Amino acid sequence: MIKIGRKTKAWQKAKPKLIKIYKEKGITRCEKCGSTWMMSFHHLDKRSSGKAEHTFKGTRLLCAKCHELCEYNKEENEKLRKIR
């Protein structure tokens, strides 16, 4: 049996709240390119870093393509901090 860790539990608790916030703000498309393909939350600081915020301020809604680009490209990730 796989144990769920502290960070995963925190994310599972925060995610439904984020979904509600994003819907209320009308953000339903990729915040980088406008696509609606395979949407997910991107943490500006990696969750594994310990600095990640499970908040509206600490996340962006991205399509899979942009999420992949920003996940491993520090410069692109920093651009996301400035889009709101």
Largest sheet features? 2 strands, antiparallel
Give the strand content.
5-15%
What are the secondary-structure elements, in order, as H or E? HEEHH
Give the C-alpha Rg.
13 Å
Kindly state the mean pLDDT as a whole number?
93
Instruction: Give me the secondary-structure category.
Output: mainly alpha
Number of helices: 3
Distance between the termini: 41 Å
Which stretches are poorly predicted, pLDDT < 50 over at least 5 residues? none
Helix content: 40-55%
Q: What's the structural blueprint in terms of helices and strands?
A:
Layout lengths: L5 H19 L15 E4 L15 E4 L1 H8 L2 H8 L3
Antiparallel strand pairs: 1-2
Characterise this structure.
The chain has 84 residues and is mainly α. The protein has one domain (6-81). It has three helices and two strands. The N and C termini lie far apart (41 Å).
Attribute tags:
single chain; 84 residues; mainly alpha; two-stranded antiparallel sheet; globular
Describe this structure in a few short sentences.
The chain is mostly helical. The protein is built from 3 helices and 2 strands.
